[in-house]
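--- STAGE predict ---
source: upstream dedup step, 1 unique chain passed
mode: sequence only
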Amino acid sequence: MTDCTAGKPAGRERTRRLGTVRLDADRLAADLAVMDRLPYASSYSDFAFAPLRNTMLWNATGVLDEALLDDYRGGARPTEHGRMLPYVNELITGLFRTEHLKFARLLVLPPGCVMVPHRDYLELEQDMIRIHVPLRTSERCFSSQGDTVFHMRAGEMWFLDATRTHTAASFWDVDRIHLTCDFIADSIEDTLLAPPARQPGVPAGNVAARRPLGPSERAALLGLAELIDIDNYRDILAILTKRHFKAGIQADEVFGWLKDIAASSGRPEVLERVARDEEYYLVRR
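--- STAGE serialize ---
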C-alpha cells in the first residue's frame, strides 16, 4: 500500500511551513463577516464527502464563475469577490509576487468535511506552486500528506506539495477557511515578497498525534468487505479517510485498503470502481 505516482511524477519540493503572517484581528474579522455571506461554488464537490465550497478571488479574467484551474499565460486579476475583501486582497498583494499568481481563492471546509486523498495538477501540463494562508481554523482541523497529519494554524503560511497524495478534514463546528494561492514560477522563493523560513518539512509542533492501528481495528476495517457495495462505496471510503486522521493509515494507503476490502467482498463492480477512482484521484485526470 504505497503512494500511487505512476503517470505524472511528483514534484521536487516537500510540504513545509514558510513563515507566519501578523494578522490584523479586527480587519480580518470584518472580511470574515463578508466571507460568511458570500455565495460559494462547489466546483470540486467530488473531492470531498461533504459540500466543499470555494470562490475565486483572483483568476485569469476576473470573472467570478471561472473556477477551474488552468495553466494560462499572463497574470491573474481580482474578481468581484476579491474586491469585496479588502484586507485579504491586501494580504495577497503584500505577501506575494502577483505577476506569478494564477489563482487565489477561498477554500471552505464546513463542519465534518473530509477530502478524498488525491493529487493535484494531474490535468495540467505544468505543475503549480500552492500556498495556503489559514484565516479561520482550529485544532480540530487537520491537513495531511503521506504519513504525516498536521495543523495549519491561522496566520501561518504553508507551501503544500499538491503533487503528492494529500487530504484535509474539519471536525470543528465552524467553517474552516483558507486563502489558497496557485502560482507558476521557478521556485517558491520567486512567489514571495519576503524570503521564506528555511526549516524543511512540517515542524514538530504542528504534527498531530495519532495512535498505531491495532490488530482488532485492522480486522474491523478489513471486515467492511461484508458490507461494501456500490451504494455505500463512498461511505466506506470516507470511513477509511477519517481513520487516517486518528490512526496509522497513511493518506497514500487509503485506496490500497479500499482495494483489499473490495477484492474480499467478491463484488467485481466495486473493485472496478476503486480502480477508476484511484486512477482519477492519484494518477491522471
